[in-house]
Amino acid sequence: MNLSDSQAYAAFRDTMRRFASDKVAPYAAAVDREKRPPIEAFEASLALGLPGLPYPESLGGQDGDMLSQCIMIEELSRVCASTALTVSSCWILMAVMDYGTEAQQREIVPQITRGEARCAWGLTEPKGGSDLMGATTRAVRDGSGWVLDGTKRFITNGGWAEWYLIFARTTEKRFGLFLVHKNDPGVSFGAPERKMGMRGSPTSDVILDAVKLPADRLLGDPERGAEYITQALLRSRLHIASHALGIAAGALEETLRYTGEREQFGKPIARFQMVRSMVADMAIRVESARATLHRAVSLYQAGDPQAKMLASIAKVLCSDAAMAVTTDAVQLHGGYGYLEDYAVERMMRDAKVTQIWEGTNQIQRLMIAKDVYDVPA
Question: Spelled out in words, what is the top-level CATH class assigned to the domain 3-113?
Fold first, then answer.
């Protein structure tokens, strides 16, 4: 990255931070409390073109690279993790840019970049989360088209999104990716999940009951869906790592503010050695996580095969940091940290799921170990 690039990224970060402060933060507590999508922040994000950030300019996007995507997610997550998730979930259909036809791209992508439609993907099922290749949702050929049957569980934007990228078994051992619209006959949704955190992001089952799709709803090769989704998950893990990093950074900022203002025994608690030691550990976790994430992003943008392992490391490091930092943030707020009046309570609840989704941290560690052992001595 040359100096001009560094300056551009810094300016972009400043813009995102101002946007988060002015347009996202004022609604964060209400979105969590009311368990509703962050409509105000999402609509405001359209003015900056954030839902279309990674898409090509020719389709209404901004051609934003991976680093700019991660910066945006981190800055929004500092104040409202649900908003960051809602905006960045619009990028799921980058798979259409990677594997779709020009007709599919021109039909669907502008709907996303203009904010006319939202999207989600359907991977997890009732009996399988980490075992993605154990998916039982089936897609059967029907003339020139397909018929889909199955249930997808824990779907972010379930019932709120218009387009769903569905992972379905097409043969005994092969899978395909399909573009399903919420208005397709046979599509229905389960009740909204009642969650510990990310309450501003709707989650529900997506139920596919003999959903008939025309041939042009298949994405790419009907037997290469596993390959496609592996690449999509690599990109998504960098996004989720950024999401967790933003939560951690936000909790650290809230803690610095609170400990600088809160007085005990006649002085700010920020002057107590134990407090300073805990805050130092929080800062170490945030900065080491950010450095690892940016290293992973650099490898990804360079097309380096090592990006896969570094993305998993970044996902683990950032999400573990988010959980540890938010827990300490609540502790350092004392009794106030346990109240909904303070943002760290929400941040702690939001942080937990980052260790679970997009491949649990236990699964990530297995993947990392495999890659480490495969490195030649």
Answer: mainly alpha
- For 52-186, strand residue ranges (E) read 119-122, 138-142, 145-156, 163-169, 175-181
CA 147/CA 212 separation, integer angstroms: 4
358 is a catalytic site residue? yes
CATH superfamily of 119-223: Butyryl-CoA Dehydrogenase, subunit A, domain 2 (2.40.110.10)
* pLDDT recorded at residue 231: 92
- Give the number of residues written for the chain: 377
Question: For residue range 330-349, what is the model confidence (pLDDT) as tens digits?
Answer: 999 999 999 999 999 999 99
Instruction: Kindly state the tokens that stand for 114.
Output: 């203009």
Please, which residues bridge with residue 312 across strands?
none
- Which residue in 74, 254, 345, 358 is the catalytic one? 358
CA proximity to 227, closest of 359, 133, 313: 133
pTM score, whole prediction: 0.95
Spatial separation of the C-alpha atoms in residues 225 and 175, rounded to whole Å: 5
What class is the 226-374 domain? mainly alpha
Q: With CA atoms as reference, report the closest residue to 180 among 153, 214, 203.
A: 214
Handedness of CA 258, 260, 266, 272 (dihedral sign): positive
Per-position b or e across 255-285, b if 16+ CB within 10 A of its CB = bbebbeeeeeeeeebbeeeebeebbeebbeb
Q: Which two tokens stand for residue 28?
A: 């964060």
Query: How many CB atoms are closer than 10 A to CB 63?
Result: 12
For residue 241, give the nearest of 123, 74, 86, 363 by alpha carbon: 74
Return the domain boundaries, the chain: 3-113, 119-223, 226-374
CA separation (Å) from 288 to 9, 25, 217, 258, 358?
19, 26, 42, 23, 21
Q: Enter the DSSP assignment of 95.
A: H
Q: How far is CA 320 from the centre of its chain?
A: 15
Q: Which two tokens stand for residue 99?
A: 């594997």
CA 91 to chain centre: 9
**What does the angle CA 51 – CA 53 – CA 57 come to, to the nearest 5 degrees?**
115
- Bridge partners of 163, per DSSP, are 119, 181
Structure tokens at 139: 């897609």
Average pLDDT, the chain: 95
